[in-house]
Amino acid sequence: MIAFEEARARVLQSVTPMLQSEMVPVHEALGRVLGQGAVAEFAVPNHDNSAMDGYGIRHADLHPQDAVTLHVCADLPAGDRLSQAIGAGQAVRIMTGAPIPAGVDCVVMQEVVQRVGDQVTIPAGQALGQNIRPAGEDIAKGALYLNKGVRLTPAQLGLLTSMGQTSVAVFKRPRVAVLSTGNEVVRVGNPLRPGQVYDSNRTTLLTALQALGVEVVDLGLVRDDRAAIREALERGASQADAVISSGGVSVGDYDLVKAVLQELGQIDFWKVNMKPGKPQAYGTLGQARFFGLPGNPVSALAVFLLVVRPALLKMMGVAEYVPPLLRLPLLEGRLRKKNNRVDFQRGLIRYDAQQPGVVSTGGQGSGMLSSMAAADCFIVLPAEAVDYAPGELVTVQRIDY
Ligand SMILES: Nc1nc2c(c(=O)[nH]1)N[C@H]1C(S)=C(S)[C@@H](COP(=O)(O)OP(=O)(O)OC[C@H]3O[C@@H](n4cnc5c(N)ncnc54)[C@H](O)[C@@H]3O)O[C@H]1N2
Ligand code: MOO
């Protein structure tokens, strides 16, 4: 049995990022991973421009104590530019976003001036440079504005568009194959006889992979039969970069996944000091990585989120693949455990209390998918014995699909 941290470190150490990139249209790149840093070909904004609707003036025309009246010599909507400089005693009507004409070094918002005909009266007390957004204040020409290895968000795709990009270099996506095992497991849509369960693991795993943005291969539901499991693992290994199974990794008479993996590939470890997820088989099947998740529905999804997902993120080329931890106060109930396994309890972050914090979602059995469905985080209880009372800080990892 190895510690959770060691298991995850061993898995992460053994996977390598995708090497090849491909160009895809920016509007199809949501969730894809940037294959090379994006460098600005021009500055943003590309001109000094007005931050307000108002009047562009020369600061030297102002009087220290008294208002001054200037002549409005031009009208400048956003998108237009003024070819000539403004001279002494002149002002220009200017809209938000319009380029600052030569000579203007101060913009006065229209609410504080008085306009009569082509005269505008400006009160004292305007600062040099006020309401002018300088060229390059957002992004300088030549700056690296997005780092390689980010998983592209709508804001980042908007940023690429604002920089004139129509397509973007992203890493190729790993292919990941999924199968469920178990004679008692039934494909949904069929009647359920006593002792049977519907195949929820394939749904959670396939959709979690879909949310991650990898290419998914569905190997279906396989009986607890050596030949059938062997055939499915071989099929997966020949098509995919990673193969994920659920069930059959414990010590029961029909737990055959480990045995088949041993025949076809190599087992690195199969017991981890964590709860849920003590039995889990990790290894290689030819070129593919193999993750044998436990059958219990909470255990399967928890191990996926805690161990497999960071590994797949690394394979996808994501730079920050280890999730951050938070410290939040426990808001209600006691959380206590003996000295045994690291316990990833299912919790909910609450923002509505006077102080933000975390609560347990209730029943913590490895078969209780409802408390996982209600959760948005894991409350991480360390391997040693703990007894947390309300108000104490606990370690939290947000569940991020
Ligand atoms: N003697 C021991 N027994 C068990 C141990 C142990 O250390 N010694 N560990 C327990 C723990 S912890 C877990 S977790 C499970 C893992 O067992 P398996 O991976 O072999 O899973 P199965 O036995 O096949 O199934 C467990 C449970 O999950 C249900 N299941 C399986 N597949 C699905 C699916 N696709 N969708 C929904 N539910 C599924 C299955 O019906 C069982 O109820 O072993 C413990 N036992
Ligand atoms: O380790 Mo098992 O995953 O608790 O139910």
UniProtKB/TrEMBL annotation:
Its EC number is 2.10.1.1. It is an enzyme of class 2 (transferase). The keyword Transferase applies. GO terms for cellular component: cytosol. Pfam families: MoCF_biosynth, MoeA_C, MoeA_N. NCBIfam families: Glp_gephyrin, molyb_syn. This is Molybdopterin molybdenumtransferase. It comes from Magnetococcus marinus (strain ATCC BAA-1437 / JCM 17883 / MC-1).
